[in-house]
Amino acid sequence: MAAKSYVCVKCGKPFLGAQAAMFVIGILSLFFWGIFLINIFTGLTDSYSQIEGTLIANEDVLLVSIMGAFLVPAVGSGALKGMSSKHGPNSRSMVCPKCKEAAANVAKEEQAKLQQAKEAKTWEWTTKVEDVEKNDVWAGKLISSWKSVNPGKVPSEAMVQDLNMARNLEKAGNYEGAAVILERYQFWEEAGRVRKLDDQKIIKHITVDMNELIDHVSTKGLAIPYKCRSCGASITIDKNSRKEGLKSCSYCGTMYNIEDMTKIIQRALE
Ligand SMILES: [Zn+2]
Ligand SMILES: [Zn+2]
Question: Which of 12, 50, 169, 221 has its CA 20 to 30 A from that of 228?
Fold first, then answer.
């Protein structure tokens, strides 16, 4: 169904003022066009003299009718546009004030419902966070300290998830990964604690390996030369070596690259 002009698209109520104006404009236009056409027609048939003194066959009337025929629709449609533009983008999509108000009320209610749902969700989350604070010793302590730095705020879901992730990474031995997450929320001390675990892991690992390697070197009766990267002084790794003695160069004091040394010993053992 094509939309009608100058009626409310919601309830169908006519815009009487605009419809009356349209009617008057139509009648006036028809009237002027009629006069204009009749004048042209009678002029062409050259019958001026017979009907002189009436609206017909009068030059002034012809002029006025031409003006009227063009001006009335132009001015009229402008005026109509002005009337309808208050109620809609064009004459076929106008909404009466009553329907406009109703629509606004519906939108308002919708907004209120959304707001309520949001508040309920926030409350639910706040309670959940409080639960974590009470029952989860590690995360709870971090959240409490975060709250003291951000008064009145609640940690985001993402943050609590990240904390769990950091905890799992620490369990898995990915200390650096855990530390990076903790730093994101400015838990500097906790990040530092986790990162130290990383150092311990490396030291432990290499210590064990180096002791084992020296054992192997000893049983195989090998003597492996190792050159200091810094001063070029050579040492020999053999059955008499102690892992403490393999930490730094006794000539220049530079710390040996343990990884590098491990590789050289392993190669000799193959
Ligand atoms: Zn309406
Ligand atoms: Zn050296």
Answer: 221
